[in-house]
Amino acid sequence: MMTRADLEQWLGDPPGESLAIGELSDVLHVVLDASRRSISLANPGELRELRFALIVLRDIFPHDAAIRTWLRSPSSEWRGLAPADLVSDGRIREFADLAVSEWNRPHVDDDSAVSGIERFVIHGTLLA
After folding, report:
1. Prediction pTM value
2. pLDDT single digits (tens) 13-35
3. Which one of 18, 53, 87, 111 is CB 3.0 to 4.6 Å from 99, fit for a cystine?
4. Cα separation of 14 and 48, whole Å?
């Protein structure tokens, strides 16, 4: 199991690194599109948390549409709240923690339905 610190190092997201304006736009576009509710960030640290979560989610899911689906799906870890609800409620750290938990779960590769071969992605590595 990878910890948050391990993932930051593994995925190349050093804490404290400043955000470029393009990254800011990218992070907010994916999250706001999924939540359909406004969000309020208390400080720049929360924006870095969102960026980290998006980096983690992009390592799991093949495209942003799959991330948006995950963002809208109720989570049993958070009493049925969708991850986007956590963001809208200002629970940014918990949202990032949920992304790390999702990264640590085994995932079935979406292409398996097409190829008929069951494949799994574990810790960012495709296993046939």
Report:
1. 0.68
2. 655 556 565 666 666 666 666 66
3. 53
4. 10
